[in-house]
């Protein structure tokens, strides 16, 4: 489990094909890499992956075909920047919201403009099924970042990005058309299933 509070930005160092799926090596700051252990779960752009082969300033992950099919990782290239968060410990503060690292769909940036010191970002999701879980003032996870929805429409939603989040995540690299990973609020999914099971 994660909180959606990004700790570091990593960079794709290399991508290696492994019988259809891929191995990706990320470069990262030395002090962050030294805190990792083989087998540790990391959220990388909102996707829960297992780190291994940890070096002084890099680590590897394996990305399956299933993950490539449902996330933006099929677009990874050398030099690509990613948001990274380590798994939640029971003693940690839950500063964002509960994030599982299981991406539901992808979305495209359709609006990006400054608003005082912040930025307004608009996203259009690629699967209308998940629109019902994105509601005004509710939580949503975008590329691993916990955000509050400002406005929602049938297949789009808008968020406000404060300066700290803009400066410390890959959102500062977004452009119109950028594709992102979306995880809807897990609590909403569970509540819906509970009500369906009652019928």
Strand content: 35-45%
Main β-sheet, in a few words?
6 strands, antiparallel
Regarding CATH, which class of the largest domain? Mainly Beta
How many strands appear in the DSSP assignment?
Answer: 12
CATH level-two architecture of the largest domain: Beta Barrel
Integer count of domains: 2
Given the helix and strand composition, which structural class is it? mainly beta
Distance between the termini: 30 Å
Overall average residue pLDDT: 91
Widest β-sheet, arrangement of strands: 4-3-6-1-2-5
Structure, explained:
It is a single chain. This protein folds into two domains: 8-86, Elongation Factor Tu (Ef-tu), domain 3, CATH 2.40.30.20; 105-198, Elongation Factor Tu (Ef-tu), domain 3, CATH 2.40.30. The protein has 199 residues and is mainly β. Helix content is 14%, strand content 41%. The protein is built from four helices and twelve strands. Strand 7 (105-115) and strand 8 form a beta hairpin. The strands form two sheets. The chain has a six-stranded antiparallel sheet with strand order 4-3-6-1-2-5. The chain starts with 7 loop residues before the first strand and ends with a helix.
């Amino acid at each position: 489990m994660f909180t959606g509070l990004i700790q570091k930005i990593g960079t794709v160092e290399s991508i290696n094909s492994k019988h259809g799926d891929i191995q990706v090596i990320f470069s990262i700051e030395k002090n962050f890499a030294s805190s990792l252990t083989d087998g540790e779960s990391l959220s990388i752009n909102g996707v829960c992956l297992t780190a291994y082969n940890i070096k002084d300033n890099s680590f590897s992950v394996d990305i399956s075909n299933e993950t490539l099919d449902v996330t933006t990782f099929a677009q990874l290239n050398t030099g690509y920047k990613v948001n990274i968060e380590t798994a939640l410990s029971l003693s940690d503060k839950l500063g964002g919201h509960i994030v599982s690292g299981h991406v539901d769909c992808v979305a495209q940036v359709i609006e990006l403009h400054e608003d005082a010191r912040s930025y307004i970002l608009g996203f259009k999701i690629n699967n209308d099924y998940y629109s019902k879980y994105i509601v005004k003032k509710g939580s949503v996870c975008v590329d691993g970042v916990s955000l509050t929805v400002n406005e929602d429409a049938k297949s789009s939603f808008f968020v406000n990005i404060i300066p700290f989040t803009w400066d410390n995540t890959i959102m500062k690299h977004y452009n119109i058309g950028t594709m992102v990973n979306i995880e809807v609020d897990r609590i909403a999914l569970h509540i819906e299933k509970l009500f369906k099971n009652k019928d």
